[in-house]
Amino acid sequence: MSEPKFETLAIHAGAQPDPATGARATPIYQTTSFVFDDVDHAASLFGLQQFGNIYTRIMNPTQAVLEERVAALEGGTAALAVASGHAAQMIVFQALMRPGEEFVASRKLYGGSINQFGHAFKSFDWRVKWADPFDLADIEAQITEKTKAIFIESIANPGGVVLDIAAIAKIAHRHKLPLIVDNTMATPYLCRPLEHGADIVVHSLTKFMGGHGNSMGGVIVDGGSFDWSADDRYPMLSEPRPEYNGIVLHETFGNFAFAIACRVLGLRDLGPAISPFNAFMILTGIETLPLRMQRHCDNALTVAEHLQGHEQVAWVSYAGLPGDLSHERMQTYCPKGAGAVFTFGLKGGYEAGVKFVEALELFSHLANIGDTRSLVIHPASTTHRQLADDQKTAAGAGPDVVRLSIGIEEVSDIIADLDQALAKI
Ligand SMILES: *Cc1c(COP(=O)(O)O)cnc(C)c1O
C-alpha cells in the first residue's frame, strides 16, 4: 500500500486490533501499572534498554495509540501525550531551560499561555522575552546568549492571525535555536508546522483535536530535525543523565530523543499524565478531525462574510476573507481554511457587546474554543475585564470586540442566531 493520506491516518495511525481480545476500537487500558515478565525484564524497562509499560504516569497503551496518531498527522518522529496543553508547554520548557535562561515568545498567544510564561514560569526563573510576531527584526532583537527557544502559535489566538512560520524558523536556526509551534488553532489538518521548519509542535488536544468539548489533553510532537548536540546548550539531551546510568539521550535515541526526554525526565518527574479515558475520547475525536475542521472552516467563512455585510458590525478580522491582513499567509500555510475562531467589532461598543452575548441562544457564552458547538465570548467583560481600556485594546480585546468559535451546526442556524441577537442590541 502507498503511504496513507491524512484522512486515513486520522482513523488508523497507531491502532491495531487489540492483541488480547481482537477489539477493533482502541481499548481504554484503565490500569495504573503493568506486570513484568521477570526481574530482567523489569530491569531493562527501568534502564531504558527496552521500551515497555511500567506505570501509567510514564506510558500506557491507550496513550501510546494517541501519541503515534498525532505524530503521524504532524509528520513528526514521536509524540508524548499529557494532561493538558499547558502541561505540554511546561514539559517542553523543562527539557530546554535551566534557571536564569530565556526564550522568545510571540505576543500573539492564547491568554493562558501569556499567564503561564509571564507569571508561573517565573518561579522556575525561566524568563520570557516577548516579541511582535509580525516584526522579524523584533524577534531577532530579543535573542541573547541565554535564549533557548522561540515559541509561536501557527494561527494565533484570539484574532486568528496567521504567522510566517518559515521566516521565523529561519531566524531560530540562524541562532541554533529550536522553533516551537503551538498548532492548537490550526490542527495538522490545516497546517503542518514541521514542514515549514518548526522543530517541535505542541497542542492543546482539549480544543479541535478532541473536538467535542469533553476532555482535557495536550501533546508534544518531536520533529526529529534539531541537533541537540551541536553545543552544550541542551544538557538534558546532550549530557550523561544520572537518572539513567549515564545514558546520553540524543546519542541513544537520535531523532526522537526530545520526545524521550520529555517522557522519561519531564513527565516522569513532574507528573501531569493524561488519563487513559481522556486519551480514548480524544482518539475518537481525531477520527473525524478532517471532516470537522473542513466544516468548521467553511461555516466560519460563511459567517464572517455575512457579518462583514451587517450594518451593526464595524469590522471583521478573519484570515479567510480576501483583503484580511493574514489572507496571503493563510494561502501559504493553511490553504484549506483559516480555522474556526475569529473576532469582529460591534459599532455599539461595550454595551452592545454585553447585550449581544446575552441575546444569543444557539451560541454558548464561555471561555473555550474548538467545540462542535458554536461558542462566543466578549473579552472586555470577561477574560480581559481587569485590564484598563487601552490595555484591552492592545491585547485585541477592546470594548467592541466579540470572539466567535464557529461550530459545525447547519450554518443557516448559526447565522439566524447571530442575526436575532444583533437585532436586540
Ligand atoms: C487552550 C489552549 C492552550 C492550553 O491548553 P489546555 O488544554 O487548556 O491546558 C494552549 N494554547 C492554545 C492556543 C489554546 O487554545
From TrEMBL:
Query: InterPro entries from the xrefs?
Result: Cys/Met-Metab_PyrdxlP-dep_enz (IPR000277), Cys_met_metab_PP (IPR054542), OAc-hSer/O-AcSer_sulfhydrylase (IPR006235), PyrdxlP-dep_Trfase (IPR015424), PyrdxlP-dep_Trfase_major (IPR015421), PyrdxlP-dep_Trfase_small (IPR015422)
List the PROSITE patterns.
Answer: CYS_MET_METAB_PP
Of the GO CC terms on this record, one is: cytoplasm
Tell me which cofactor or cofactors this protein depends on: pyridoxal 5'-phosphate
Give the SUPFAM superfamilies listed for this entry: PLP-dependent transferases
Q: Cite the GO molecular-function annotations of the record.
A: cysteine synthase activity; O-acetylhomoserine aminocarboxypropyltransferase activity; pyridoxal phosphate binding
Q: Name one GO biological process term.
A: L-homocysteine biosynthetic process
EC number annotated for this UniProt entry: 2.5.1.49
Domain of life where this protein originates: Bacteria
Which EC class, in a word?
transferase
Q: Does the keyword Transferase apply?
A: yes
Q: Which UniProt keywords apply?
A: Pyridoxal phosphate, Transferase
Pfam families the record matches: Cys_Met_Meta_PP
Residues annotated with N6-(pyridoxal phosphate)lysine modification: K207
Q: Which family does it belong to?
A: Belongs to the trans-sulfuration enzymes family.
Q: What is this protein called?
A: O-acetylhomoserine aminocarboxypropyltransferase
Q: Which organism is it from?
A: Jiella endophytica
